[in-house]
Fold this protein.
Amino acid sequence: MKKALIIGASSGLGYELARQLASQGNKVAVVSRNTQPLAELQSQFPNLVFPFAHDVRQTDAIPPLFAEICRALDGLDLVIYSAGVMPAVELNEFDTEKDTAMIEVNVTGAVAWLNEAAARFHGVGAGQIVGIGSVAGERGRAGQPVYNASKAFLHTYLEALRNRLARRGVGVITIKPGPVDTPMTAHLSLKKMPVDVAARSILKLLKKRNGEFFLSPVHAVAFAIIRAIPSVVFRKLNV
Amino acid sequence: MFDQHSVRRLQGFGGVGHGDCYLSCPRTVEEIGELLQSASRGVVVRGEGQSYGDASVLSESIALSLQEFGEIEIDEGGLAQVDAGVTVGRLCHVALLHGFWSPVVSGTGRPSIGGALGMNIHGKNAFHAGTLGEHVRKIEVVTGGGQHLFLTPAEPDFWKFVGGAGWFGVIVRAWIQLVPVESPSVRVKAEKSRDWPGSLAQLSDLGSEDYAVGWIDVMRGGRGVFHFARYADAPSATHEKSKLVQTAAKAVLRSSLNRTVLSGLNWAKYATSSRKSVTEHLFDFSFLLDSIPGWQAMYGCQGFYQVQLFVPEEGALAVFNDVTRHLQRLGRPPQLAVLKRHRVTTAPGWALNYTVDGFSLALDFARNGRESTELSPLMDLALDAGGKLYLAKDQLMTPEQFLRCIGPESYQEIRLAKRRFDPRGILGSVQAARLGIGDPV
């Protein structure tokens, strides 16, 4: 039985990951501002799901809450940071307030939670960290400057954690999903991966212990090409 | 009252199971008291983690380590004032410089004095020296409730801390009466026995021997090789190492420990053992395997269990024959089997007393996942014969077996003492919870 913590578990990938982990008999602490879905999960798995109300922007609250969660689970093996926001942004919109809110959730919250996880796992010499990044972090695109940058930050931060923690036996995985059928992408008219399929793929990837992964081979090839496109060309493309 | 980033994964010596604990290393008695009084989660008292099982592990607790307490002072009469964080090996090293030796030592020098007293260890001289606690003149402790006490063996509460498994408080310092030695040497003589009756006979009349121990081939009817040692009167210019056992252990490290290898090693140990008397250094004789770092790795990465059965003399032969039959039936040879002679402790009112007037048989088993069904019956064999089990070697005892081991009166005494010395139930361990001594806060 694994003891997992999922931050951002009230909807989308986080919720589905928690549901699948609990259905496999693992103990899961679920963290979110929105506690109603967490309570629903707990009612489905009363002895396996432990809900905690928390807004990831309240970083001062994280260390004591992290300790409380470890105690409730009687240990910790896996931490998944799945919290993220992607508000709709117009092409002529430069709203610092909106962007700051995005950075607080996607970047600052991730660092605050995963630093706690990294410190603990470094101490015990075991454990695994998973960060939910995005294909959107692969390039800076016109449509979502700060969302793209926040995910690029997360990818680089996780890579650094991976390099720092591997020698202590700690695994760090970066997941780069494409569009997944979740409330966050409801406003996007794209082909989306069903959320249960995405969550299942992520849980399978835990066996790899370390690395960066796309959820589809098509994305892996496409984004290898996209990354190689010179910036001067990329800005003329509608991708 | 703990550093959240001080979390460490802790295990017992056997390497089976683990707990992630917040390591706390107070520097003063006052800090220990404050920690115990303010702790909002369980506290497990942790020495050097040399108990074989889960006695010093408790997941998500504060692991209270006395590693900052490391002073030793020895007076002319050999009374040693020893901090709890000092290891048995270091005490012996310093004692030898003063012409003394620890009255009781474990089979490795690695346990801390605090841990050794918490478990009230015995050694290869248990047949005359009893347990380490019987040589302690005074202890300084902090109870689970934060009370700072000095206790002597004349006070019954002394035995709640010495041999109390850290359930009632923390031993901070002890005054131990060392034994004088003329030299750092022992004269070691070997004998052989052909079967269980012969092995028990080897340890039945030990006369003026200082140490005695038997290495037993349990699967071949209890035949064994015995080592008897006496303190040497004069220093020796040279010391012979216990070459046979060390060579065998090194060979084992390089080989897989299958049944054939074990059988071969046991045969080699038996066949090559000589009756010739040799002079060994006290360290080599006492801490045989310490010179092979990580020797327990030979049992594999899954760890191992040790079961030590204490059996009264009158029932010993029948029990050990049954042990042989049980293990032969299972086809599960122990990787190591050690026979020792014991006397009953002179400690009055020691609730967790494991000593008997008889023998103990310690059996090492590499973990295979079937221990509770395969090894638990061995413990029942000892208990059926009025025997005892030993918390320092335990990871398998059930609450029922524990109750049978210590008896209902002692069990009740422990519960009452727990309420008295640790009213908030702060102190605990996986072992304590398993044996029904309260779940910690």
Notes: The two ends of chain B are 15 Å apart (CA to CA). Residues 185-398 of chain B form a domain with the Vanillyl-alcohol Oxidase; Chain A, domain 3 fold (CATH 3.40.462).
